Here is the input.
Amino acid sequence: MAIASFGLRLVRKFGVKIHTKMRNTLETALVQLGAWLRGEIPLEGPNNKSLLSKAEIENRWFTEDACKMAMKACGEMLAPTVMAEWLGRYDIPEEPVETKRVGLVLAGNLPLVGWHDALSTIIAGHQAVIKASSSDAVLITAVMQAWQGFLPDGEKLQVEWVVGKMNNVDAVIATGSANTNRYFEYYFSDLPSVLRSQRTSIAILDGSETEADIRALGNDVFQYFGMGCRSVTKLYLPEGFDLDRLFNVWVEWSHLANHNKYANNYDYHKAVWLLNQVPLLENGFVLLKEDKAFLSPVGALFYEFYSDEAALHKHLELNANQLQCATVKNPEQPSGLSVPVVPFGATQSPQPWDYADGVDTISFLLGLSSYPKLKPSTPA
Here is the structure.
C-alpha cells in the first residue's frame, strides 16, 4: 500500500492528522516514527549513541545491540503495509471512540517491551497513562518524545506519565511476574483489565535440523540474553539427539560470557548445581540441564528428550498457559497446539497481531467504550 493511501486510512479511522514535515510526499507521524526507530534518520533513534549509552547505564542488560534490535523490531511494526494489515482486521468506528484513561503498567525485562501496549492504546483513541518500569524508562520516553515531534504543531500525544501511584484510570493493561500478577488481580479487580503473568517459549526439534536451522534457533535462545517471554528456555529433543550439534553451531554466541551480569548468572547456577551433583553439559557460556520445567534461568537452557510426539503435544497443550510460543522447523505442519508456532529464528520478531498471552489488545481497547465510567482504581 502506498504511503499516501495509508495516511488517508489513518485519517479516516483515527483522526490522525498528516503532514509533510520530513518529505514532500504525504506521510503520517507513525510512518516517520517507524523510520526513526529503524535507524533510517541520521543521528536519531538507534543512531543516537548518547541515547543508547544512557539506556545501558540505567540497565546493564540493555546493551547497544539489544537496544538497536528492539528498536528495529518496533519500527518494523510501523511499516505501512504491516499497519494496514493489522488495523484492517478491525471494524473501527468512523467517529472517534469514547476516550478512556488506560493505565499501562509496563514490564522492563527487554528494551521497549511495553511499546506495543502504548501504541495500541493511543491508536485506539484512548489516553495512555504510563507507569514505566525503572528498568526501561529511557527508551520508552525517547520514543514517545520522538512521536510527539512528528505530530503537526498544536497536536498533543495523549500520554500521561505516572511515577508511584496510578489513580483515576478506567482500565488497566499490566505485565509482571507471577507474584506481581496476583497483586494486579487484587488491586485492579474493579476495572476492565488485561493482566499478563510470566511466560516463556519452547523449541521442539525432530532430529532433521540442519546447521542453518540450529543457527536460527540460537537467535531464539540467546537474543536479549534469553530474558524475554518469547525467548526459548526449554528444548524438546528426540531420543538420541546429539547435544554436541548445538554446541558446535552456537559457539558464535560465546561472547555472552564477556557480559558481566550474564557471566555472574552462569557462574552462580553452575556452582549451585555442581555442589548438588546435578549432571550438566556446559561450554563456557551456556549450561544445558535436563529438566522438566519450562523456564530456565539466565545462562542456562533446559532440555528434555521425547519419544512420543503426540504425548508431547498433549503435555504442552495442558500447560499452554505457561507458554508464549513454540518454535519448530516446519510450523506449517499441524501441531494441535493453541500457542503460536513459528519457525526457528522467528520468536523475537512478532508481528503486531501476535498478541502477548494470546489476548487481542486492540479488541479489548475498542471495547472499552461500552464500559461505564468506573470509580478510580486503587493505587498501584
